[in-house]
Amino acid sequence: MLDLGRKNVLIIHKSPNMKDITDLIEYGVNVIVLGREMADNDNLLGIKVDPHNHAELISTVDKLKKSISIDAVIPIWEATVIESAIVSDYLKLKGNSKDAVIKARNKFLLASCLDSNNISTAKSYLIRCIEEAEAVLDSELSYPCIMKLPYSANSQSVVLINNHSELVRAFYQTIKMHRSTDNPYIMSFKSDKDYKNAVLLQEFIEGVELNIDLAYSNNHFELLGVFEKAPMKGPYFAEYRSTYPINLSQEQLTECIGIAEAAVKSLGASIGCAHVEVKYGKRGPTIIELSLRPGGAYTMHAIELISGIKVISVLTRLLLDGTLYINDNYCKSACLYGGIVLEKSGVISQISNIDIFKNIPQIVDYNILFKNGDNVQALPEGSKIHLAHYIMSGNDIHELLERDAEIRSAIKYTIQ
Predict the structure, then answer these.
(1) Is the sign of the CA dihedral 164, 140, 132, 278 positive or negative?
(2) pTM, entire model
(3) Parallel, antiparallel, or unpaired: how do β-strands 199-203 and 124-127 relate?
(4) CA pseudo-torsion sign 128, 177, 241, 35
């Protein structure tokens, strides 16, 4: 049963991380998850609903608010940040506007917004036929370049293109992804005629890539965490390792944080958390991606290990009463989180040495995402692209990198 003396918060998600749920319950709120049925416990209610059917979603919210008050909507999943904004606006609760969230989710709108505000980002062109792509490459861009869906997420559809034959192959491959009926990251845009049959062609930016997590309210920003991504060479860009500390100077880091804050402001985002991907190269910091929610996978856990900051609690307090309070309590000097990337699609027939996680003392947590017999889909079409996730902490990043190499050399899998 829900504790009626507590505040009630909604999370719109089909499979939320249970650590986030537990942290929220420990923070002292009731959690209602809209998106799937979940076993009730003292403070958790799960309601099955298609979050991308907006009429069904609002109807469910209407029924729910007849029995309990709803005090905040907490956006933590990229696939439902738009729906979170819709519901918070419908209930007149604190949160970002639907317009701001759509500009962050739609990578063409994001690039246009950043460019109009003189914020460095990759040159981006909306393409609807191969002839348009050829024309852009004749006059505006050069190889190598990037192609992806306008509402790409989790590296899905992102491909590096080096020549004309790769351009043609990538274009038709990416256009085909619009027809997916089970991809959660495109469902919010199924009725968007302007972008339904288009791809995004972008300048390829080289440099050191950072994940920067921020909390903000009315143009006041607090830094939550910064991690450096391991280099990804293409043709696809599955993230496989992020580390702290990073390999930039304090001056360079300050530049990166500054451009991340400017990017969030340019969208008209008013309150919440942001996960910003920035590359630092020859022309300084450049915005690559921006999401109006906390970093996914183990990002929030990593921030907590390094600084003691519980991001989900910071975000919840912010959306409940408008208070932006960071209790930065230094814990660890080094952290690494990563994943074992699925390199091909098919059925997993064998996984070896997956128990290695139990034998590495620096491992804080891990999650095996697939098992023998599971059908998996790799990039560029796939959205669940890792066999396992894991996170380590310690006092020496070089030691963690050595353990990471051990894990990657030990774990083997066969896909047929």
Answers:
(1) positive
(2) 0.94
(3) antiparallel
(4) positive
- What 3-state DSSP class applies to 224? strand
DSSP 41: B
Domains of the chain: 7-93 (3.40.50.20), 98-107+207-331 (3.30.470.20), 123-203 (3.30.1490.20), 337-416 (3.30.470.20)
Check if the beta carbon of residue 34 is closer than 8 Å to that of residue 51.
yes
CA separation, residue 130 to residues 106, 107, 134, 197, 388 (Å): 21, 19, 6, 12, 37
Q: Which residues of the chain have pLDDT under 70?
A: 1-5, 36-43, 181, 188, 190-191, 328-331
**Cβ-based burial of 182 (10 A; exposed 0-12, middle 13-18, buried ≥19):** exposed
Contacts of 288 (CB under 8 A, 6+ apart): 121, 122, 205, 209, 277, 278, 279
Per-residue confidence (pLDDT) for residue 17, from 0 to 100: 84
pLDDT for the residue numbered 187: 74
Rg of the chain over CA atoms, in angstroms?
21
Instruction: Please give the pLDDT value at position 190.
Output: 66
At 15 the pLDDT is 84
- C-alpha pair distances (Å), 230 with each of 173, 208, 209, 241, 338: 26, 9, 8, 5, 9
List 276's β-bridge partners, or say none: 212, 290
DSSP tag of 205: P
CB 212 within 8 A of CB 228: no
Burial group, residue 96, by CB count within 10 angstroms (0-12, 13-18, 19+): buried
